[in-house]
Amino acid sequence: MPLPEGSACADPVVVIPSLVQDEEVFPMMTGEDVREVYETVLPDDVVMEFVRRAGLQERQRELDALRFTRATVIAASSGRGGRQADILRLYFEGAPRVVRGSAYAWFGETFERLMEQVRDRALAYARSLPLDLPGVLGAHVSDWHIVDSMTVRLDDRLEAEYPSTGDHAALKVHKRFSVGLGTTWDYHFSPAREHDAPHLTIDETWRGLGLLVDLGYASHQLLRDCEEHDVRFVLRLKENWKPKVDRIERGQVGRTFFKGTDLDALLADEVLLLKGRSVDLDVTMGSGLDAVRCRLVGVRGPKGRWHWYLTNLPRDVSPAQVLDLYRVRWEIEIDQPLCLHTEISSGGRRHAHVLRPSSRRRSEQPQPLELGGVRADHPSSSCAFTHLSGLQLSSA
Question: Smallest Cα–Cα separation from 16: which of 381, 346, 374?
Answer without folding.
Answer: 346
